[in-house]
Design a protein that fits this description.
This is DUF4440 domain-containing protein. This protein is α+β, with helices and mostly antiparallel strands. It has four helices and six strands; from the N terminus they run H-H-E-E-H-E-E-E-E-H.
Length: 155
């Protein structure tokens, strides 16, 4: 991978991180701007089912962003990254804070995120994002209880 391509990817990730910070204020637009315009863009987040396709991903991001207000990004801890000529993946702990739902207080929001970027004809774009809220170890019983409470069937 040439250094210019790495610089371009780094710039897109910076925009992505800024967008996540703004997302915590309830505005999904800046985070949506780094999404691939191809039909295989996908998202998995704690607020709904997996979605695929740009309109579906943007709608899911809008619904998720509506749960947050008065927030910001505190930092992004890179756990791992893989970069090839046309594909890159980052695994991060996103340290955020926001008023969540109807809560009056600002609360920490720690998310595990895996993001996949693809170099397309006009630059690097986010093609997949998977986020979950589990930032600490959990017991099997706690995971199963949460699944059952959400209406899912036990593994």
């Amino acid at each position: 991978m040439d250094s210019g391509s790495t610089v371009d990817l780094d710039r897109v990730i910076e925009h992505y991180h800024r967008g996540i910070g703004i997302f915590m204020t309830g505005d999904h637009e800046p985070a949506s701007r780094v999404l691939s315009r191809r039909g295989d863009v996908s998202l998995g987040n704690p607020f709904g089912p997996w979605v695929r396709g740009l309109p579906e991903v943007i709608a899911a991001m809008s619904r998720a962003a509506a749960q947050f207000r008065d927030g910001r990004a505190l930092g992004f801890d890179r756990i791992s990254e893989w970069v090839a000529a046309d594909l890159a993946s980052i695994v991060e702990l996103e340290r955020l804070e926001s008023r969540v739902g109807g809560r009056p207080d600002v609360s920490p929001v720690n998310l595990r995120a895996t993001s996949v970027f693809r170099r397309e004809e006009d630059g690097w774009w986010l093609v997949h994002r998977h986020v979950d809220t589990t930032a600490a170890a959990s017991t099997v019983e706690a995971v199963v209880s949460a699944l059952l409470a959400s209406g899912a069937s036990a593994p």
